[in-house]
Amino acid sequence: MTAVPTVRRVFGDGPFAEIGRPRAAVADDRSDLVAVGGHVGRLQWNGRGSGDRRWIEHRIGVYERDGLRCRHLVPSREEVNCLAFHPVLPLLAVGTGGYDGGYSFTGELLLVRLDTGEAVSVLPYPREVVRVEWQSPTALRLTLAPCDDWQDPGAHRQAHTAVIERPDWARVGHQGVAAAELNAPAAEFDRADPGPDARRILRGLAARAGREWTPRTRVGAVEALPDGRVLAALDGVLAEAWLPSGERQWAVPDAEGGRGLLLVPDRAPDAVPGAASVRASVWANAERLRPPHRAEHPAPRVARLSADDGSVLETVPVDHPVTLVAGGDRTFLRPVEQYRGVPWTLLSPGPDGPVDGPSGTGFLHDFQVRHATRPYLLVGFDPRRPYHDKWVTTVGPDGTLRRLFPHAPEPGGPHASGPAAETGQSLVYAGTGGRSDESYVVRRSLTDGSVLWRYRADSPATALDTDGELVHVARNDATLVTLDAADGSVRRRTELRVHGLPTVALSLVVAPAPAPGGGLYAGTADGRILHLVPTPPAPRP
Question: Per residue in 425-438, pLDDT tens?
Answer without folding.
Answer: 999 999 988 665 58
